[in-house]
Amino acid sequence: MGRKGSKKNAGFHGGASTENQSGGGVPKKFAKDKTSSVPQASYVRKQVDPETAKYFSEISNVIEGAEIDLEERSVICGNALEEARGKEVELATDYIISHTMQTLLEGCSVEHLCAFLRGCAKNFCRISMDRSGSHVAETALKSLARHLEDDENHSLIEETLSTLCQAIVVNPVDIMCNCYGSHVLRRLLCLCKGDPVDSSEFHSIKPSVVLAERLNLRSTQLDGHESQQNPPFPDQLKFLISEMLNPSRADIAILQVNQYSSLVLQTALKLLAGKEEELFRLVPLLLGCHTDNALEGNFLEVTAGKKILRLVEENAYSHLMEVILAVAPDTLYNEIFTKVFNNSLFRMSSHPSANFVVQALISHARNQEHIKLIYEELGSRLKSLVELGRSGVVAALVAASQRLEIHEQKCCKALADAVCLTNEPSACIVPRILFLDNYFSAVDKANWNWPSGVKMHVLGSLMLQSIFRFPSEFIQAYITSITSLEEDQILEASKDPAGVRVIEAFLTSNASAKQKRKLVSKLRGHFGELSVLPSGSFTVEKCFSASNLSLRETIVSELLPVQTELSKTKQGPYLLKKLDVESFAKRPDHWRSRQTSKESAYKEFYAAFGPMDTKSSRSENFLSDTHHKSMEKLKGMRKEIDARLSTGYSSKSGSPFLAHQGSGGPKKTGNKQVPEGREFPRDVGYDSFQSKSKRHKVEKTSISSKNNNDGETLHGDKSSSIKNEKKRRRKDGLSNSLDKKLKAGISD
Question: According to the UniProt entry, which residue ranges have a biased composition of type Polar residues (predicted)?
């Protein structure tokens, strides 16, 4: 099991967190030891006696050498653990036998597992801080987590955890600051919360994930905690966290700057996300403040603010501060922002470690007022930040402006001005951002050209992805720039992992259909080679959606020669079905007719349900100029039209596709079960639709016959249902002409 701490990466910084305060209301069941922490003496590892070593060697051969049923294996493992009583430390810290101990703990019953942990509780810290013993301790906790689903084991596990927590808080600093012990402690915290053993709170989050969260490209992992159920062992979690930060036991100043204790505190904070009462006690302690002031809403003094500014320049504390900013209640965040970082943002942004804290501060801004203050200080210095290599701060500001819808035009213009002088054409904007480091490291920037074959800049790509989520009126310079790229440049960008994201972001933006088609047309002759690339199928699909009938026909015709190769790729079969390539190969006229019917249905549907403030390009392509939010709302409706044109009316009711919106449950196709809302609906041929219609007629005949025998009740219910359906359709605005076009698309 690897032992890794959080590491920084270009443009982002791993999270950090802080822990709970001392006066947290410790449960009476826990006996508090009032003695202050005393550093543990170094231990001399005792060797395992030869007889015991031989016994466990034989046990290892038995349980690893032959096939044994689970029940017999559990008995053998339990008996072996009983033989380990009183020798847990020696066995767990032995390099060879520790592996056998891990196997035993994985295979034994919960009773033997808990007995082992309680037996070694007094030495649990010693085992956890050992290179081999830490693996044994973690294995025991992971095995314990697997028994949480059985309610019968709850009281037994609770008692075991209470025993371990009491042993740890006697001297928490040593285990928190130990490179091995911190891993075990984080595992224990997650177990008390009931989080999975491979929880993101335990493992260091990938740089790309943190960066995506900060730039609004995915929801933050901390958001889900607020809606989670209460932890299975709340008393143990609260006790362990509060006692770890009890000033009488722990020196907070040491914990703030130690890289391993920082990881423990990060985990604790994330597990408490959404628990405002706990955070109001915990966060002030980690900021070096008194909690009494926090209750009054004034816990930060000027001197404390200056100290925090010095601390965030430390690697460990900067990680910690990032998580504090992510989980802090709004009032705490606001006070940290105004009393610590306001008017110091540029200086902090220039620092190698503190700049990541500024990124977190911007990304977690609570309201527009925060962004206004941030922009006042940094808006005119974006070029300086990029030149200093702090493009992550710039990217965070652009994304936060888009998220909170404030200073959108100013941010877009400031970024453009940072890479392009006033007298230079706007065509240079996108290339320079795509190759951000290459451009700013060039000696002769005036004669800089597109560097063919050079990998595109990840943060530059993320900035442009954020830019193309702004309303089109704010990003015309960027739209002009990307549509001005040469054919070979667009092709190179489409093959680059960072560049292709920008192309896709532009194609899904609310730029006009004409501008999108201008870019798509420059990829003529290359759709086949793009489609077989790992991410190329997504690009080709977006090109298809943004095209008119002529361009769509070109795209599909270029996929025909690579159809066999494409079908063997991961996304290829879905793309072939989505674009209906097989139908085009067999009956091109039928394919064109269906595409025309779809487009006509989209336009009328748009006219009925589209936003009222959008006036341009309704004649160009469905939703080409709508606001991004409206596009998201109507995306599902558009998929419904696609599915209805492919599958026909429902075999159960014969009603239009809108009648089945929101119907839950999976749909069956043949012997396979297709999940509801699948992105690529299964096409059903005309013959299949006819057979469904015949079955429907049979059903109607059967119902009619039953009505003749059983009275008019069923007939009356069905008539009422039909009337209600018609009223609902009129209310939703689905016109008869649209219904006819849907039928026409099917019959074609």
Answer: 701-711
